[in-house]
Amino acid sequence: MVERTDHGVQSVEDELLVKRLVDEKIPLTIYPLSNIKLKVFDDTKKNSLKQLLDSSVMVTINSDDPAYFGGYLNANYLAVTDAFHLDQKDIYKIMCNGFEASFIEEEKRQLFIKQLDAYWKESS
């Protein structure tokens, strides 16, 4: 059983794989600034994140060796928000996905999601 797929931005090229990711709720971690540094994409706008998100894949945004690849988590979120004009609903979904995909106890996961929900409602 696959619990999570890291660095899977090219999965968008295989319809059956995308369907499997959605059907089995397999999280897909995406590292936008790392993808630029490693020349997976030459521009954040070419990243497949938005296409995967729109296909209902459980995508998460992450940092990958931030000191080397030039960006902590917030910088990665800002890069994709700017590139794809993500709205609050998109950001909220990606943040929830991050908790859903994390390898933590279910009780803690639900606590963090509850805290995110409360913060989101308060700031909206």
TrEMBL record:
One of its GO terms (biological process) is adenine catabolic process. Keywords: Hydrolase, Metal-binding, Zinc. Gene3D superfamilies: Metal-dependent hydrolases. Residues 2-118 form the Adenosine deaminase domain. Signal peptide: none annotated. It comes from the Eukaryota. Its cofactor is Zn(2+). GO terms for molecular function: adenine deaminase activity; metal ion binding. InterPro entries: A_deaminase_dom, Ado/ade_deaminase, Metal_Hydrolase. The keyword Metal-binding applies. GO terms for cellular component: cytosol. PANTHER family: ADENINE DEAMINASE. This is Adenosine deaminase domain-containing protein. It comes from Didymodactylos carnosus.
